[in-house]
## 1
Amino acid sequence: MYCFIEYLYNICLCYLLINVRKHFYQLYLVRCKDTNYYYYKKTVNVI
């Protein structure tokens, strides 16, 4: 699953794409600009 963080008019948008295949996941904590909210960003490494 991918989580893309984009900044648009100071709004944090998180887009999730689900992939059924097996992948390695790395979890990153991403802080949105001008907010106190935190989002988890997952990057996928294909086996």
## 2
Amino acid sequence: MMQMSADFEKSKVESALSQAKSWKKGFFGSLAVSALAVGAVMGLTPLKEAVSFVQRVNDTTGAVDIITTVKNKEMHYDEVINKYWLSQYVRYRESYDWDLIQATYDATTLMSSPAVKSEFTAFYNQPTGKRNLTSILILFRHTENRHWQIFSV
């Protein structure tokens, strides 16, 4: 009986030692894989270049456009600024929103030449003494909003 007990204990000790060897091998193997992964990341990090860009999503079609920057395209800064203000002018002049009507009216009159300004104010203002049925204020009032999307200038 003592011999069986000693053999049982011996088998338990041998089993524990073999498990410890297996765990040790697994630990050092995973340590080696982790070291290789860290080394790969460190080696490849200088090769990564972050390129920032702006994406615009079309509301109606869902198409995604990448908006270019001035340095990537052969455009002068003045040309980019002029295109921006021209698109803003067209947006102010052609849109109609009852809540923003005074702001768009003021911006359009500030950006317009005197001849264009007088034509634009006549379109909004009613002549004295009679009702201007073509005035945008009479046509739309506060029931409609008109906004335009400018694709190219």
